[in-house]
TrEMBL record:
Transmembrane segments: 7-29, 70-94, 106-127, 133-156, 181-206, 239-260
Keyword Signal part of the UniProt annotation: no
Topology versus the membrane: Multi-pass membrane protein
Subcellular localization, as worded in the UniProt entry: Cell membrane
Keyword line: Cell membrane, Membrane, Transmembrane, Transmembrane helix, Transport
Protein name per UniProt: Raffinose/stachyose/melibiose transport system permease protein
Taxonomic superkingdom: Bacteria
Similarity section: Belongs to the binding-protein-dependent transport system permease family.
One GO CC term, this protein: plasma membrane
Keyword Cytoplasm: no
Top-level taxonomy: Bacteria, Bacillati, Bacillota, Bacilli, Bacillales
One Pfam family from the record: BPD_transp_1
Length: 275
């Protein structure tokens, strides 16, 4: 009976995945190879005359190669945000796990509050404008770091509890200072959870739509998700080019997720078990 339930759960999970993820992806794939007239029908059938390459060329050169600029901006945004997240969150998780005091509950509450309380758009824009960071890539990087900080800190803190304190003590006895102790000994031991944060945060930041829309307006600052506006309007929507654009910006995070899928699961489970 238990095996039947287990098989039923697994089959249900597979069917749910197919319905939620693969059917929409198939819909995008077949319609991105059609012409404008055929794609406007929004059917699930394959194109009678496939023109994938023509649609890709049109999407890439549209509006003076805006998609190329968008890929560059999104790559810089993702790489810089992930690098800052790893260093800051690993440090914060290490301190919160190793040092406990009267203020520790307050810090833990603030981190949890960061996961619960939604960001306020207008006050954030007012603060960024006062600091001269509004409409700048640096400002958006700081926004992404702030939004990803609570989740990454909790992962690092949970994983850090599985590293014995004797490691710290042995390093101190050998003459290692605080910087050398963290970057030379502790940070390399955090590779499983670091890989998890890199993959999850990269997909989230690369696919972010609302934050670049609010905090980084302008055609020169466009990111990949905002290029979807190129082929849709109030009156006319070029569905074949729109779906081609979606397909192109979906491939990088999809490949990243498929390649590092095992690392994601390993990092999440290791942090939970050791915590």
């Amino acid at each position: 009976m238990r095996k039947i339930r287990q098989w039923g759960f697994e089959i249900g999970a597979v069917l749910f995945t197919i319905v939620v993820f693969w059917i929409p992806f198939y819909f995008i794939l077949v319609n991105s190879g059609k012409d404008a007239k055929e794609s406007s029908l929004l059917t699930m059938s394959w194109a009678s005359n496939s023109q994938y390459w023509e649609n890709i060329k049109t999407v890439v050169v549209a509006r003076d190669f805006m998609l190329v600029r968008a890929f560059i901006n999104s790559t810089v945004l993702t790489v810089a945000s992930i690098a800052i997240l790893i260093v800051l969150c690993a440090m914060a998780g290490y301190v919160l796990q190793r040092r406990t005091g009267k203020l520790s509950p307050l810090f833990n509450f603030l981190i949890l509050a960061g996961l619960i309380i939604p960001p306020a758009i207008v006050p954030t824009i007012w603060v960024m404008d006062g600091l001269g960071l509004f409409k700048t890539l640096i400002g958006l990087i700081l926004i992404e770091v702030a939004l990803g900080f609570p989740f990454a800190v909790l992962l690092y803190k949970g994983f850090m509890s599985g590293i014995p304190r004797e490691v710290d003590e042995a390093a101190v006895i050998d003459g290692a200072g605080g910087i050398r102790l963290f970057f030379g000994i502790i940070l390399p031991l955090l590779q499983p959870v670091t890989a998890t944060i890199i993959v999850l945060s990269s997909v989230t930041i690369f696919n972010d739509f609302t934050n670049p829309l609010y905090f980084l307006p302008g055609s020169d600052n466009v990111t990949v998700q905002l290029t979807l506006y190129n082929f849709q309007s109030q009156y006319v929507t070029q569905y074949n080019l729109l779906f081609t654009n979606i397909l192109l910006i979906t491939i990088p995070p999809l490949l990243l997720f498929i390649i590092f899928n095992k690392r994601i699961v390993a990092g999440m489970t290791a942090g939970s078990v050791k915590g």
